[in-house]
Amino acid sequence: MSTVNYSNPNTDLTVRVFDSFYDYDVNVPASEYDIVHSYFLSQMTSRQAAGNFTVSLFRVAETTGIPALTLLQEMQSNNGVALNINMAYYLNQIRSRATLLGVGVPMVPNFYQARNVLA
């Protein structure tokens, strides 16, 4: 006897979004996930990049308390490099200050401290 994996729309209205590298796990509404993921699929060149941006957007939304669709509306006016800069801005707000994303000017260490670093 064959079975059909049918999800009950009354009980299965969330999607589990997770990132094992950062140990991030959250359940989000399926409709919001579909909207965000489809937008990033239309903007990115690969499915993996779209998935990474989707997870990052939900992570920023949870940390900042700003709804994910509000953040997405802000990003929809941008494309390409501006989209990357916008996402880097939000990710820099929740990351350690030692690991900033999108910083184009390399930091030059003090001469005496740089001498003590072995390459």
Order of helices and strands: EEHHHHH
Instruction: Give the DSSP E fraction (strand runs of 2 or more residues).
Output: 5-15%
Radius of gyration, taken over Cα atoms and rounded to an integer in Å: 19 Å
Oligomer: single chain
Instruction: List the strand order in the largest sheet.
Output: 1-2
Q: Based on DSSP secondary structure assignment, what is the total number of beta strands?
A: 2
Give the count of structural domains: 1
Low-confidence stretches: 1-6
Biggest sheet features: 2 strands, antiparallel
| Helix share, percent | 40-55%
Estimate the mean pLDDT confidence. Answer: 75
Class inferred from helices and paired strands: mainly alpha
Globular, elongated, flat, extended or rod-shaped: what is the shape? elongated
Terminal CA distance: 64 Å
Descriptive overview:
- This protein has 119 residues and is mainly alpha-helical.
- It has one domain (14-115).
- The chain has helices at residues 30-43, 47-64, 68-76, 81-94, 111-115, and strands at 14-19, 24-29.
- A two-stranded antiparallel ribbon has the order 1-2.
- Strand 1 and strand 2 (24-29) form a beta hairpin.
What is the structure about, briefly put?
Helix content is 50%, strand content 10%. It has five helices and two strands; from the N terminus they run ββααααα.
Task: Please give the structural blueprint.
Blueprint: E1 14-19, E2 24-29, H1 30-43, H2 47-64, H3 68-76, H4 81-94, H5 111-115
Antiparallel strand pairs: 1-2
